[in-house]
Amino acid sequence: MNRVPLPADITLGKSYEYGLDVNLGSFAVPQWQSCRRISGWAPTFPKVTNDVQSYDDQGAPNEDVTGRGFAGAFTIQANRSLTSGLYLPEIEALLNASRAKAEAAVLDVRFYHKPAIGTPHPTDAGRALVTVEITRQNTGNAENEVFAVTLTGKGEYTPIANPWTGWGSTAPTIIGITPADAGSGDLVTITGSGFLTATAVTFDTLPAEFVPANDGSIIAQLPTDTAGTVPVVITNPAGSSVAFSYERGA
């Protein structure tokens, strides 16, 4: 039997060609942080049904699908900063949600197709509000720390345009600066993501001397300036972070 040839631009999809982001900002002004080093991404869309069986079905089941939920599961390597002791910001967000109550337990996420080559599927993407459960997957004496994560949707997911723009670095995200009220010449630690390839750090548009400790942490020296609330921006080859407000001293 002859095999029917496929068109030249057809390729077989890969299991790893999906991405997941968590929102570190607000729902209205999101700051999306990719979940790095994940495996086994398994989204599901459980159905909600209503029994519409009648005599005409002659005893056979007949149910309409009246809604769709959202759920997902994956594993993620538990990388953490040697400087701060914190996990990467996306892991911190997952852990915080898994240990919180009420609205603090709800996390905003998005998922999307991200192919190794070719064009991403334009509509294979969505945004959902979820609650989180986390367990430590590896608990042996000489294993890497890995978390098994389960997401349970609150309501339906929202289809979105696929945000994937290709492999490579992403613009930095700032989630915190310590200590507060540092003054001119003092050192501060900036935490977030996308810092390893940083090309500039500015406080109120003034350039600062800096050294990336790792992808999630930068040590910066405050430039000379007056006290007050200043915007802090980090730039790498992929772009600039959303300005982070920092209350500095003189």
TrEMBL record:
IPT/TIG domain boundaries: 172-242
InterPro entries documented for this protein: Ig-like_fold, Ig_E-set, IPT_dom
Gene3D superfamilies assigned to the protein according to its UniProt record, in alphabetical order: Immunoglobulins
NCBIfam families: tube_lmo2291 (NF047353)
Pfam families: TIG
Protein name: IPT/TIG domain-containing protein
